[in-house]
Amino acid sequence: MQQSFRMTGKNKGICHSCRRPRHYLSACPKKQPCPVCENGFVKWMEVEKKSANIGRLFFCCSSNCGYFKWSDEKLNGAYDVGESSGVGVGSPTEKAEIEELSRIFKIFAQITE
Q1: Are the C-beta atoms of residues 35 and 67 closer than 8 Å to each other?
Q2: Which helix H or strand E contains 61, and what residues bound it?
Q3: pTM for this prediction
Q4: Which one, of 56, 52, 49, lies nearest residue 105 by Cα?
Q5: What share of the chain is helix, strand, coil (3-state, %, to 5)?
Q6: Can you give the residue ranges of the GRF-type domain (predicted)?
Q7: Which of 11, 17, 75, 98 is the most buried (most CB within 10 A)?
Q8: What's the order of all strands across the beta sheet hosting 42-46?
C-alpha cells in the first residue's frame, strides 16, 4: 500500500529545487543530481521545526541518501548563497527580491513563535 505524503508549511506549493512557485521538482529544468548518491536530486528546503535553525535553508537529497548541507555554506564551490540546483541570482532586482523574501520569512517566523 502506497502512503500519501502531503507537504505543509513554508515548503508547500513551491519547487523543492529552485523554490519558485508554479512547478515542482519533477518538472524543474534547473534540478541537479545529488552529489553523493547521484540517484536523487538536490532539494532546497526550509527548517520549519521550532528550533535555533527555524527559517534556515538547507540542501538535501530527494532519495534520502543522507546528503545534507546548509544553504549558507558553499556546495563544493558550485553554488553561492541564494542559489539552488544551479539557479543563479542574476540581476540586482532578483537578489533584492530574494533578500526581501528572506527578511519577510524571518519576521513571520518570529511572529508565529
Answers
A1: yes
A2: strand 57-61
A3: 0.54
A4: 56
A5: 25, 15, 60
A6: 34-74
A7: 17
A8: 42-46, 57-61, 68-70
pLDDT values of the chain reduced to their tens digit, one per residue, 113 residues: 444 344 456 667 777 778 787 777 888 888 889 999 989 999 888 888 888 988 888 999 989 899 999 988 755 544 444 444 444 444 455 666 677 777 777 777 777 66
Tell me, what amino acid is at 82? G
CA 51 to chain centre: 18
Integer Cα distance of 47 and 39 in angstroms: 24
Size of the chain, expressed as the number of residues it contains: 113
Please state whether beta strands 57-61 and 42-46 pair in parallel, antiparallel, or not at all (unpaired).
antiparallel
Question: How many C-beta neighbours within 10 Å does residue 1 have?
Answer: 2
Domain limits, the chain: 9-112
Q: What gap in Å lies between CA 55 and CA 72, rounded to an integer?
A: 12
